[in-house]
């Protein structure tokens, strides 16, 4: 490609659904969303956390967990290859290879041939008693990850996170300034109360401070008598503008937007945050300019 060639725009879809305890029904929902995304010219579909299963209790998830080489992941790999679309599987209940009593909340990227391109295991676990809401102690059933992950895709270089990671801006800064991420992924199952207060606020902040696209696929609605999720799946550009969202914030469906590398570079040229960040860290005497 010549130096004057324009970087390709990639159309993407952010998905939203109400996962239940029926893995095969959830697969059918994801399949429908993938086919709709492909029909609308999308290279990639981004699915939310817990896309394949939400049970009544955390121990249900441990019982249903499978390895990444298991039959359920193979079905999603077949879906990606048959539809011809990249899939961001926002949070898969992966059987822990080291702890039989816990699982790993694993974000998996599949290419359009069904091959696994990247895996990220959620680092920050949601151990919170939500006021007037549920008590969620993710660490009781989930083993934390210990590595940040980014990978290349048709939509650009992806920085992988999951849900509660959103509250830790240093994660997104590291993905951007150390791992060269251009698109930050935040698949989630936010509670209704915390979503109403903080969801869009934090997502737009991450986009602005990192000058990245942000794609946030969300669970929505009542999964069972114990779980309800906020919804409001979003695609946000590097200037902090919402460029994709569902008309019905609690419905199952997709929203589509274009990821434009030229727009990302324009934002970064107009306000060179990375350069100023290095200068600021140097002035403060901080060790590694990141």
Order of helices and strands: EHEHHEEEEEEEHEHEEEEEEHH
Structural class: alpha/beta
CATH superfamily: Carbon-nitrogen hydrolase
State the total count of DSSP E strands. Answer: 16
Average per-residue pLDDT, rounded, comes to 94
CATH top level? Answer: Alpha Beta
**CATH topology tier name:** Nitrilase/N-carbamoyl-D-aminoacid amidohydrolase
Which spans have pLDDT < 50 for at least 5 consecutive residues? none
* Share of residues in helices: 25-40%
Shape: globular
How large is the radius of gyration? 18 Å
What's the architecture in CATH terms? 4-Layer Sandwich
Distance between the termini: 30 Å
Number of helices: 7
In total, how many domains does the architecture comprise?
Answer: 1
Instruction: Indicate the proportion of strand residues.
Output: 25-35%
The major beta sheet can be summarized as: 8 strands, mixed
3D architecture notes:
- GO terms for molecular function: hydrolase activity, acting on carbon-nitrogen (but not peptide) bonds, in linear amides.
- Pfam families: CN_hydrolase.
- Residues 10-261 form the CN hydrolase domain.
- The protein has 290 residues and is of the alpha/beta class.
- The chain has a single domain (10-260), classed as 4-Layer Sandwich (Nitrilase/N-carbamoyl-D-aminoacid amidohydrolase).
- It is built from 7 helices and 16 strands.
- The chain has helices at residues 23-39, 58-64, 71-83, 169-177, 192-210, 261-270, 273-284; strands at 10-17, 44-49, 86-95, 103-110, 116-121, 127-129, 135-137, 149-153, 156-160, 183-185, 213-216, 218-222, 228-230, 234-236, 242-245, 253-259.
- Strands 1, 2, 3, 4, 5, 12, 13 and 16 form an 8-stranded mixed beta sheet that branches.
- Helix 1 (23-39) packs parallel to helix 3.
- The longest helix has 19 residues, at 192-210.
